[in-house]
Amino acid sequence: MQVNLHETWQIGPVEIPSRLVLAPMAGVSVQAFRRQGRRFGAGLVCSEMVSCAGLQHGNERTLGYLRIAADERPLAVQIFGSDPAVMAEAAAMVEAAGADIVDINFGCPVKKVTKTGAGATLLDEPDRACRVVEAVASAVSVPVTVKLRRGLENGSRACLSVGPRLVEAGAASLTLHPRSAKQMYTGTADHALTAELVSLVDVPVVASGDITARARAKTVLATTGAAAVMVGRAAQGNPWALREILEGEGVEPSREEVVAELILFMRETVRELGEHRATGFLKKFYGWYLGRGRFPRAFKAELTQLPTIAEVEARLFAAVPGARFPLARLEEDLPQSDEVLLDLPISIYGGG
Ligand SMILES: Cc1cc2nc3c(=O)[nH]c(=O)nc-3n(C[C@H](O)[C@H](O)[C@H](O)COP(=O)(O)O)c2cc1C
Q1: Which ranges in the chain belong to alpha helices (H)?
Q2: 23 within ligand 1 shell (Cβ under 6 A)
Q3: Closest CA to 227 of 195, 189, 190, 249
Q4: DSSP sequence for 37-85
Q5: Strands ordered across the beta sheet of 205-208
Q6: Residues 225, 199: contact at Cβ < 8 Å?
Q7: CA-based angle 43:44:50, to the nearest 5?
Q8: Is the minimum distance from the CB of 74 to ligand 1 under 6 angstroms?
Q9: Mean of the pLDDT values across residues 295-319?
């Protein structure tokens, strides 16, 4: 079966220009990550999960800042919580901030979230889950989507009974990560379940889990009937994976390109999170960008020890002076900051 990843598809009235979606990832999906994802071909990007209670209280300590820039749209903002009224209120704030889609997290397996009755726990409470979707869908005019896991326990098929009910309650699309919450990120994503879900609902389904290369993406699209594939871990520090999946261009980036993308990412993240928060936040990205055999292990380790981002940048330029040229080109091509539409607080922890 021929699969065209460049096909446009829709969630409600929102047009999505490719069948590749960048996954929401807590502690990863900052604006720099989302803008980069769009540049490398993702048709839709998503914020990390945002606490609806955090939005309601505007708590600066647990909240970061979400900026929605023109060049990251279409953009979904994901919220989590278990109280329908609070979720509805949060959704209205997200819509007002300029999100094209409000996504609801029914997949997070992390205790901190599930013990509050939110995330994947809602798969065991389908009535409440439906009330959440109904409340959110009636609070906003943009499409409401849901991201879910297969269920709580290993082997669970809860997504197949809950999914169609969520669609009845107003979900315009479902994303399935077919692992159980108990599995966390171990084992494999069972996309046979994605195919079953596709056959049960008449809204687009997005397949999430273990999509790391073009061949896998095409197989999952062809065998499940999903509208799109979602890519998460494979794109961490590696936007070239998105290009490979979309275009089939499996060319390893040069050291200059890698360092230019990393420094752009660092600069944008400092603007977004501030120097202090960005310093710790960025450490994992050094390994992600410079790993995959691109740079020696000792170099990555050295960068994580440097106390300031300015020193990391200087060290990177000293190692790869030629990175200045591709970096200048990238910065030139970025839209001006007046294209940033709005700031909104978001939380920083989670999963799904
Ligand atoms: C670090 C990390 C954070 C995540 N945070 C979220 C999140 O905030 N919301 C969500 O729905 N899923 C979250 N996920 C799950 C991913 O969106 C995705 O479904 C999962 O990683 C499987 O896809 P992959 O194999 O392409 O990584 C997270 C995953 C990781 C690895």
Answers
A1: 31-39, 52-57, 84-97, 111-114, 126-139, 158-169, 191-200, 214-224, 240-247, 255-273, 275-290, 297-305, 309-319, 324-333
A2: yes
A3: 195
A4: HHHTT-SBEEEEEEEHHHHHHT-TTTEEEEEEEGGG-SEEEEEE-S-HH
A5: 20-22, 228-231, 205-208, 173-180, 144-151, 101-106, 75-80, 45-51
A6: yes
A7: 165
A8: no
A9: 96
- The length of the chain in residues reads 352
Active-site residue, from 46, 52, 108, 130: 108
How far apart (Å, rounded) are the C-alpha atoms in residues 189 and 192?
A: 9
Q: How far is the CA of 321 from the centre of ligand 1 (A)?
A: 34
E strand or H helix that includes residue 343: strand 340-347
Q: Convert the pLDDT of each residue in 20-44 to its tens digit.
A: 999 999 999 999 999 999 999 999 9
Residue with tokens 């060290």: 315
Q: Return the ∠ at Cα 196 (arms to 191 and 198), rounded to 5°.
A: 95
Q: Which amino acid is at 348?
A: I
As given in the structure block, the two tokens for residue 90 are: 């949060």
What six digits make up the tokens of 214?
A: 């073009």
Is 52 catalytic? The answer is: no
pLDDT at 59: 53
Task: For 218-262, write each residue's pLDDT tens digit.
Answer: 999 999 999 999 999 999 999 999 999 999 977 889 999 999 999
Q: Which of 148, 155, 200, 140 is nearest to 177 (CA)?
A: 148
Comparing CA positions, the residue from 122, 223, 230, 137 lying closest to residue 176 is 230
Segment 78-122, tens digit of pLDDT: 999 999 999 999 999 889 888 999 999 999 999 999 999 999 999
Q: How far are the Cα atoms of 81, 94, 95, 161, 281 from residue 342, in angstroms, in the given order?
A: 23, 10, 11, 38, 22
- The crossing angle, in degrees rounded to 10, of helices 84-97 and 126-139 is 40
Report the DSSP beta bridge partners of residue 15: 10
Sign of CA pseudo-dihedral 148, 217, 1, 17: positive
Sign of the torsion angle spanned by Cα atoms 58, 60, 61, 64? positive
Q: Is the CB of 24 inside a 6 Å radius of any atom of ligand 1?
A: yes
